[in-house]
Design brief:
Layout (H helix, E strand, L loop, with lengths): L21 H8 L10 E3 L8 E6 L2 E10 L6 H18 L3 E11 L5 H17 L3 E9 L4 E10 L15 E4 L5 H9 L5 H12 L3 H9 L4 E4 L4 H13 L2 E4 L10 H6 L5 H10 L3 E3 L5 H8 L7 E5 L4 H10 L6 E7 L6 E3 L1
Parallel strand pairs: 4-5, 9-13, 10-13
Antiparallel strand pairs: 1-2, 2-3, 3-6, 4-6, 7-11, 7-12, 8-11, 9-12
Helix pairs in contact: 2-3, 4-5, 7-9
Length: 346
């Protein structure tokens, strides 16, 4: 029998908390030559969730990839979460998943049964998404890492980007946040089983049905919330759209007792990297307490969609989201005319 291994014991930072600092990444990308092509509909300029390339007038492909170290204890859960996280980029852009390929980095001294469970978890989510697994690539590495390269499709007229927010839009978030802090608490042995399991289920939940609802209501601007936290991704949306965003921190839905865990100091390092990235472009109202500040900076893994919806449609969209598997969907802010700062947190 294979010895049971807690994957969290193998890593310092897991999931999307392991992302490079957005501040440092911007430096690396700053002087790269701009890529232009007549069929390239979405490129790297606004740091969107994926690239979009038009094949014909009624068909475009979405290309994305994502992988990371373990974000939970169990290998099968890890595979599901990593796959759901990678697939989410297609949904954030209003697309449907077609194919996926495994990306695997795995220590040679660990049992292949662990890798098998990771791959089984990934395949489960690919199948749930209606996609086809085509194969993949693996290399030996000291710390296990897993993810997918994903191809989706979307009609060119229906592409959703993070650069189409309009003043007057309402911001709707489809999943609660707090996974970074809860996983940090789990590593330190202080997360309750209930909060930890809630975080696992939250990360395994696909954003597929939310994408269909966006298409139904002709939503044009959205992004998924991952390693740069709610605030970091809202900042990218504001800058990409040349607007400002007002976030209502007290309205942001949370997982389990995450606010208590933040109060106890369960704040992963990625939150402070996100703070460094966002602080020059964001302003916190004096009434926002430290815990809520850390909440919106908390690095998420396989988070929900943050979508911009017309104010008159917000109530019906939130109701439909809640009835379709996203019970915590909430209005968390609004889009305003471009001002001094990109995001204002109240």
């Amino acid at each position: 029998m294979t010895k049971k291994i807690d994957l969290l014991n193998l890593v310092e930072q897991g999931g999307c908390s392991a992302k490079l600092s957005a501040t440092e990444l911007n430096k690396a990308l700053a002087d790269l030559p701009k890529i232009t092509h007549e069929n390239l509909l979405v490129d790297i300029d606004t740091h969107d969730d994926g690239g979009v390339y038009k094949i014909r007038d009624d068909y475009a492909i979405i290309q994305t990839t994502d992988f990371f170290p373990p974000v939970c204890s169990d290998a099968y859960d890890f595979g599901q979460i990593a796959a759901a996280n990678a697939l989410s980029d297609v949904y954030a852009m209003g697309g449907q998943v077609i194919t996926a390929m495994n990306l695997v980095m795995f220590p040679e001294n660990l049992s292949m049964d662990i890798l098998k469970d990771i791959l089984k978890g990934g395949q489960k989510k690919i199948q749930e998404a209606g996609g086809v697994l085509l194969g993949g690539h693996s290399i030996a590495d000291d710390i296990p890492k897993y993810g997918l390269a994903v191809t989706g499709w979307v009609h060119p007229d229906d592409v959703i980007t993070n650069a189409a927010a309009k003043p007057g839009d309402v911001l709707v978030l489809t999943k609660p946040i707090g996974t970074g802090s809860i996983i940090s608490a789990k590593k330190n042995g202080i997360a309750s089983p209930e909060s930890y399991q809630a975080a696992i289920e939250n990360m395994k939940l696909l954003n597929d049905k939310a994408a269909l609802i966006m298409n139904k209501y002709n939503i044009k601007c959205a992004t998924d919330i991952t390693g740069f936290g709610l605030l970091g991704h809202a900042l990218k949306m504001a800058d990409g759209s040349n607007v400002s965003i007002r976030l209502e921190s007290s309205k942001v839905p949370t997982i389990g007792n995450v606010m208590e865990l933040i109060e106890m100091g369960c704040i992963p390092g990625a939150a402070f990297r996100n703070q460094e990235f966002t602080e020059g472009s964001c302003r916190f109202e004096s009434s926002v307490d430290y815990n809520h500040k850390m909440l919106v900076l908390d690095a998420q893994t396989s988070g929900g969609l943050l979508m911009c919806v017309p104010k008159e449609k917000a109530e019906v969209i939130i109701k439909e989201l809640r009835n379709t598997g996203y019970p915590d969907s909430s209005e968390v802010g609004s889009v305003i005319t471009r001002s001094e700062k990109s995001v204002y947190i109240h």
